[in-house]
Amino acid sequence: MSVIALLSVAPVIEESMASDVADAVEALDEFPVSYETNPMGTVIEADDTETLFTAAQAAHDAVDADRVSTVLKIDDKRARDTTAQEKVNAVEETLGRPARGDSLSPTEGSKTKTVKNDE
C-alpha cells in the first residue's frame, strides 16, 4: 500500500462522540483499506488516493449529526510503497526502543519523568 492517511471524523457535540466515531470507523469496513484507530484519529492505508478519498467520504457521511468535523492528512509516497508500520519501525530503529512512553491517564494522577543531567 502506498497511501497512508490520518482521518479524524467527529460530530461537533458536547456529549460523548464514541457512538458516532464507531459509525465512521465501521463505514471503512466497506472498502479495501486497512486501518487502526487510536485516541486521536484513525490511520488508514489504501492502494490509491481514489480509494482513500471514497472511504474517508463514507466515514464522514456515516456520522449523523447537524455538524461534522473531518480532518484528513495524507502521505502519498509515490517513489516507493511503504506501510504505516514500516514508518513506525524506522522511528523505533532510530530510537533503539519502542516509540512509546509511559501512559498518562487522568485517573492515575500525574506522572512525570525526571531526567538527570550529569554535567
Automatic annotation (TrEMBL):
It holds the Pfam family Thiamine_BP. Residues 7-92 form the Thiamine-binding protein domain. GO terms for cellular component: cytosol. Residues 80-119 are annotated as: Disordered. NCBIfam families: MTH1187 family thiamine-binding protein. Belongs to the UPF0045 family. This is UPF0045 family protein. It comes from Haloquadratum walsbyi (strain DSM 16790 / HBSQ001).
